[in-house]
Amino acid sequence: MNKKIGIYPGTFDPITYGHIDVIKRALKIVSKLIIAVSNDYSKEYLFNSEERVSIIKNSLFKDLRINSRNIKVLYFNTLTTSFCKKNNATIIFRGLRAVSDFEYEFQLAGMNRKLDKNIETVFLMSDVEKQVISSKFVKEIAKLNGKIDNFVTKSTIKSIKEKI
To answer: N or C terminus of the chain: which is more exposed, having fewer CB within 10 Å?
Structure first.
């Protein structure tokens, strides 16, 4: 495999099995993947950026025992293209769940391309079983005492229950 570095940016508030599916697919394409946790101050989060990084690491490396050798989890509050440049990444991975995601993601990819023509955006569909999962719905279900173990890992459930 060539030494391609990719990033998978998102808020991951919290990480879901849908995100994890995209991570696994991205790792088939690049030799190193940086999960880039956005720290956009204009959004309200259940978890702060440090907590989200920790939850991702626990989900991937402890709960699922995914090898951490090719994965880094970092947070950032810059332009995604600037973060790519700083980390020598040439690919941005974006997950698509439904057609409704595409228009926004298409515009975002176009803007990123205008900012840096050397960075490619690759859209990955998550598995059909995982396409309905969203962090927003997971939080809503958890707040209403619903069962979320089909959507997130054990350590993530624990973190959500402690926070809500």
So the answer is: N
pLDDT higher than 90, residue 124: yes
Set 72, 97, 113, 158: catalytic member: 97
Helix residue ranges per DSSP H, 78-131? 80-86, 99-115
Which candidate in 38, 59, 126, 135 is catalytic? Answer: 135
Annotated catalytic residue 43? yes
Peptide bond into 14 cis (omega under 30): yes
In angstroms, the CA 56 to CA 59 distance is: 5
Alpha-carbon distance of 144 to 147, in angstroms, equals 9
Domains defined for the chain, CATH in brackets:
5-163 (3.40.50.620)
Active site residue 135: yes
CB 122 within 8 A of CB 92: yes
pLDDT in tens, 42-59: 788 999 999 999 999 999
Q: How far is 101 from 107, CA to CA, in rounded Å? A: 10
